[in-house]
Amino acid sequence: MHRTIRSQLRTLGFTLLELMIVLVVVAILGAIAWPSFVQSIYKGRRSDGVGTIVFVQQELERWRSSQPAYPANLGAMSMADPLPSRDGYYS
């Protein structure tokens, strides 16, 4: 009876080899997933820049509808020059 309790206690944990295998598998999966994650971040930042460009384009067209020419810079339209994007990734 004493032996069965002792053998059950030994099987409750993980061995170092099992933990190392899990660590290697997680590292491999992370190395595969990381570039995809970084690309999705870059895509999100690009959409921030494109949104700012579209905003400036619309403001320029509003300005041009009431003025004889486009302004020389954004400062003439009371906008910051350079205009930072909404999230601040581009200017």
Protein described:
By secondary structure, this protein is mostly helical. It has a domain at 56-91. It is built from two helices and no strands. The protein is rod-shaped and about 95 Å long. The mean pLDDT is 86.
**Would you tell me the structural class of the helices and strands?**
mainly alpha
Report the oligomer: single chain
Radius of gyration over all CA atoms, rounded:
30 Å
Q: Give the low-pLDDT segments.
A: none
Largest sheet: none
Count up the helices: 2
Give the helices and strands as they follow along the chain. Answer: HH
The helical percent reads 55-70%
Indicate the proportion of strand residues.
under 5%
Shape: rod-shaped
Please provide a brief summary of the model:
With 91 residues, the protein is mainly alpha-helical. 66% of the residues lie in helices and 0% in strands. The model has no long low-confidence stretch (mean pLDDT 86).
Main attributes of the structure:
mainly alpha, 91 residues
How are the secondary structure elements laid out?
Elements: H1 2-10, H2 16-66
